[in-house]
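Intended use. Records like the one below are meant for learning the mapping from a protein sequence to its folded structure. Do not use them to infer anything beyond what is encoded.
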Amino acid sequence: PHSKMAVLCQSLLLVLALSAHHVQGMGLFIRTTWLNELPESKIQSWFDLVKAGRDQGPSSPYYVTDLGIQQIATGQWPPPNTSNPGILYKKELEQLSQYFHLFDNVHVGTLLYPYNGTQSKFLNETYWTEYGGMQVTVAEEFVHMFPNLTNFSWYISEEGCLEDNPAVNFKYLLEFSAAALVSVRELPILWSPGFCRKISSFTPSELQNVESQLEELFCNFSYPIAVSVFMVVLASTLCNFRLYIITIGSVHYNYRQHTL
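Structure written out for the chain above:
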């Protein structure tokens, strides 16, 4: 489980990966569960900086335009898997909602759905069908909870490691998630996977394979999705996908271990 120190370390990554629609501004990424792990004064201090940055304008180091919320309902995060996924984090969302007006766009994820099968979940079409249905339920509840919210779009909660056979592993994830979300409300969609290995460790053939698989994945997909990728030095516009390059100095986030 995450310690408070780990959460504080992760807060260093808050201004990182969501400049997907605004060239000048940065993005703030948050998990709703963080609101239970830190004092409310700490959360308030983050958003006070955002407000100061918006007041000061694009020249401010705290000028943040986008908020990303990975998940808004119970599910696979935090470990262990909850036995009752899909329950909206209403208290935490109410707390966050007082800051929505500070952002041009709020990217809303749904949930990380538990998986207990034996084969790879990425290849299990039945799992993704169920997950899509659960995303619809959660997204509908969010829209019902905030009927007047207009500055939001969707976020695909499941992220993953792009070096792990992406043309195969992320096909169902993207197809079923995008179809589910746009069925609730036809809005832009953001996805923010990462590389769990440093790009510098890839051999030329591995790098070429990843590039060709990403092209295959994106060019065979029917929904336009903004893709914000951690620690990438290769990327461009591919078919319906716009890839945004995110570099964070020497910081490398290991998704498998959930540690910095």
